[in-house]
Design goal:
It contains ten helices and no strands. It is mainly α. It has one domain. The relative contact order is 0.17.
């Protein structure tokens, strides 16, 4: 019973770390325009829409966060193993190294992408680089620290046999996928275009025609992240936190039943409940706010 209590307490801490990491990951991708809408930011100058949005994506969020999390966890593992550094300090140092590396990638990607768009007249704004890169690094640090921490707990306390840098790699990929799947809904095509009827896809004729004006002056990445912190970031964090908590909760509680198959059965039931719930939510949303009419698109 005592061992079960320790495992559940650890699981609660892991869920908290995952929630914070997920929210930070989504906001970092919004600062750097590394979400699905990134292709529109990249395309905008080519159709005559110059902008002040940070444009750094050189890969998708899952790949980027797999590398980021694995790097932070590997540095922490090396410091703790080879130099006997306290694991808390090692995790913080590893996250700092990974975040600074990520900042270098972000800077070179921003400069490189916009240099390649010189023919379209898109400027490189030094003030955008200086004001947006630090928040990118800070949020990458928070996300890496959270992912590496709950990966370490998963390895040492819960007993997952894989080394925690490998777990951090896998959970980093999952965190990036969560940001793309959950956070991008609130990045919001509605935010980027603002004149889309509910539920409508982007017409090909409007591709790249992003909104350039913000609340005060021209739209920038700080405006976008300020909008996403209301819904996209928290919901991404909630999604990742629930994924960690619910998945490991059913593992810890039901692994002793039916020769280990109890955890699999419980997981299947959780998935079925979520699928049914999502379907009811979708039908309700369509009835309440949709459907859109094609003639409303302008």
């Amino acid at each position: 019973m005592e061992e079960l209590a320790v495992s559940l307490g650890t699981l609660a801490l892991m869920g908290a770390c995952a929630t914070i990491a997920g929210a930070a990951e989504d906001l970092e991708s919004d600062f750097g325009s590394q979400s699905n809408a990134n292709s529109q930011v990249q395309l905008a100058p080519q159709v005559g829409y110059l902008h002040r949005v940070y444009n750094k994506a050189i890969c998708g969020e899952p790949v980027a966060y797999g590398l980021l999390s694995a790097t932070g966890a590997a540095v922490a593992f090396a410091l703790a193993t080879a130099f006997a550094v306290n694991i808390v300090i090692a995790l913080a140092l590893g996250a700092a190294v990974a975040a600074l590396m990520y900042g270098v990638y972000a800077t070179t990607a921003y400069m490189g992408r916009l240099t390649g768009q010189k023919r379209f007249g898109q400027p490189i704004y030094i003030d955008v680089l200086l004001t947006t890169t630090p928040p990118i690094i800070a949020h990458a640090f928070i996300a890496t620290m959270g992912i590496a921490t709950f990966s370490y707990l998963l390895n040492v306390i819960i007993g997952q046999p894989f080394p925690f840098p490998i777990l951090a790699l896998l959970w980093g990929i999952m965190t990036g996928g969560m940001g793309s799947a959950v956070g991008d809904v609130h990045y919001g095509a509605e935010r980027q275009y603002q004149y889309k009827p509910f539920g409508m896809g982007l017409p090909a004729a409007q591709s790249g025609k992003i909104v350039q004006k913000g609340e005060v002056g021209l739209r920038n990445s700080i405006d976008i992240a300020g909008f996403c912190v209301k819904h996209g970031g928290p919901l991404t964090g909630l999604g990742l936190g629930l994924t960690v908590f619910v998945d490991l909760w059913r593992h810890i509680i039901f692994i002793e039943f039916v020769n280990g198959w109890g955890a699999m059965i419980a997981g299947l039931l959780v998935i079925v409940v979520w699928v049914i719930g999502n379907r009811f939510l979708e039908v309700w949303a369509r009835k309440a706010y949709g459907p859109f009419k094609k003639e409303e698109a302008t």
